[in-house]
Amino acid sequence: xxxxxxxxxxxxxxxxxxxxxxxxxxxxxEFCVFVGPSGCGKSTLLRIISGLDDASSGExxxxxxxxxxxxxxxxxxxxVFQSYALYxxxxxxxxxxxxxxxxxxxxxxINERVNTAAKMLQLEALLDRKPKDLSGGQRQxxxxxxxxxxNPEVFLFDExxxxxxxxxxxxxxxxLTELHAELNATMIYVTHDQxxxxxxxxxxxxLNAGHVEQVGTPMELYxxxxxPFVAGFIGSPKMNLFxxxxxxxxxxxxxxxxxxxxxxxxxxxxxxGVIKHIEHLGADVIVHIQVQALGTLVARADGDFAVTTGxxxxxxxxxxxxxxxxx
Amino acid sequence: xxxxxxxxxxxxxVLGVLLFxxxxxFIGITAVKSAAEASHLGLSLPSKWLFWxxxxxxxxxxxxxxxxxxxxxxxxxxxxxxxxxxxxxMIGYVIQRRPSKWNGFIYALIxxxxxxxxxxxxxxxxxxxxxxxxxLHGMILIQVAYGLSFSVLLFRSFIASIPRDLDEAAIxxxxxxWQVFFKVILPLLKPxxxxxxxxxxxxxxxxxxxxxxxxxxxxxxxxxxxxxxxQSQFSSQMNLLFMNILLVTIPPLIMxxxxxxxxxxxxxxxxxxx
Lengths: 327, 274
Ligand SMILES: Nc1ncnc2c1ncn2[C@@H]1O[C@H](COP(=O)(O)OP(=O)(O)OP(=O)(O)O)[C@@H](O)[C@H]1O
Ligand SMILES: [Mg+2]
Known about the structure:
The complex is a heterodimer of chains A (about 325) and B (about 270).
Chain A: E1 4-13, E2 16-26, E3 31-35, H1 42-50, E4 57-62, E5 65-66, E6 77-80, H2 92-102, H3 107-120, H4 136-148, E7 154-158, H5 166-183, E8 186-191, H6 194-200, E9 203-208, E10 211-216, H7 218-223, H8 228-233, E11 240-243, H9 245-249, E12 254-257, E13 262-265, E14 271-280, E15 284-291, E16 295-302, E17 312-317, E18 323-325
Parallel strand pairs in A: 3-8, 3-9, 6-7, 7-8
Antiparallel strand pairs in A: 1-2, 1-4, 4-5, 9-10, 11-12, 12-18, 13-17, 14-15, 14-17, 15-16
Helix pairs in contact in A: 2-3, 2-4, 3-4
Chain B: H1 3-31, H2 35-38, H3 51-97, H4 103-115, H5 120-129, H6 136-160, H7 164-172, H8 177-188, H9 190-205, H10 209-214, H11 223-233, H12 238-268
Helix pairs in contact in B: 1-12, 3-6, 3-9, 3-11, 3-12, 4-6, 6-9, 7-8, 9-12, 11-12
The structure holds adenosine-5'-triphosphate (ATP) and magnesium ion.
Adenosine-5'-triphosphate (ATP) binds near residues 13 and 39 of chain A.
């Protein structure tokens, strides 16, 4: 297994700077997730690690070897694409075994390894089908099988679940986590979905506009966001962020409080406001409150908390849950 | 359907049949007539069906020239098509997948190949210099050159519909550039390849003017040129001329009848699913 080290990676396309100096260590066996808004350069960074694209400058080490200028096949990586990218003219068996047959492995070895991978992913019954006769989830599994079978040191995933429906996605999240535990391989996973990042990652790398905002475990990012961007990006609904007086009282630029860390009351509290909008999620209810001094405040309350639009309400931040951030 | 629509439909069908089938019927009927009857050039049925006699007469004419012509045309068509399909697919792939600063120039050349009419005399001069004039392989190269632009454009637009992820997945799997093309892309080009092969082979097989210019000589005769040769000889034997036309028309016709569906499919097929 292998660690991945990125040193000062820059990338520009036609003079436009897309990545602006990325430094990153991914440890051996870690499940590392890159998150960030669309267009921040996640895929670009992953492609640079894979060797499909070259960095404009900077160095890449995989398993302590400098692979900055190595071909993809010499990097010990496998990649799963968002579009699955299965070869339409080959059966599932040949899709999974394609890399091995290119490497001129003996037939029976290929067969054995394909079967092992298929078993791990419950694809045994589908081995003789063509990709067009598979469902989206099955195709995704074939794509993962194609990665597993080569025994790579590092797995790269580019939004592998984003073409699946919500139910299947949460099932696959679990399967991927189990797979990671089973293979104990280093995995780098790109997503713009912070739920995927929170649920699967050992380490989250938050990217924004071509640079790393913060690196940490999911809970570190949740409890101790270092920048307003990370504070707003991690967690759902998004953290309430306010500039102005409240922040200045504490010597910060921005004051933040998560919706789930506000206590609501009809009698008394720190901020008084009017309920503008209510979203019932069943277990929870999300309340949008118009507060004179602040603006809109979003709070999460218990599902059976009885509120109506237009009524008055008080919100109080919980002790020790407030965030004071500088720009 | 309204009555009026039915009537219009029937009229259109009848017109269509008259327009398209009459020439064929005329060829077929004249081809089996006796020389005297054929000289009237009418649509009346022959009094005696002379299929076999006329057939053998045409085959045997000028020391079995038609058979030699079939052989030559087949060699030219097969040779040119193989070269054409493989090189057009490869060129289309490279210009679609690897944009470079040369692309504008290459496109200009391709469009020039489509639009600028070939100049016969300089081409003959060039062929002579290369010692390819009056040779079958010279003719093959001419046909490849004339068909290349159109085929490259067809391949290029089809390849554009194949997701680039497939190339990249193959590269990750360890494929060399030529393996990406031959193992992943080429198999997916089947529909468009069939279209190119059929359309171009009919064009090349039926070509009259190019062999006339670039392939003179009795030994180099191609099927369409047999008509030219026969026409003078058979001016009093319309039946044999039409039998010759019939024999020359048949192979492309069979191709079209059998592969009709594939041709249309290749023309319209786009994205590869899966
Ligand atoms: N080949 C390219 N040529 C020019 N610009 C590119 C190229 N590839 C990516 N970019 C630009 O780089 C930026 C980052 O793209 P990238 O695909 O890495 O974003 P991303 O973070 O993966 O976004 P998403 O979540 O939407 O997939 C975008 O602004 C994109 O337009
Ligand atoms: Mg992306």
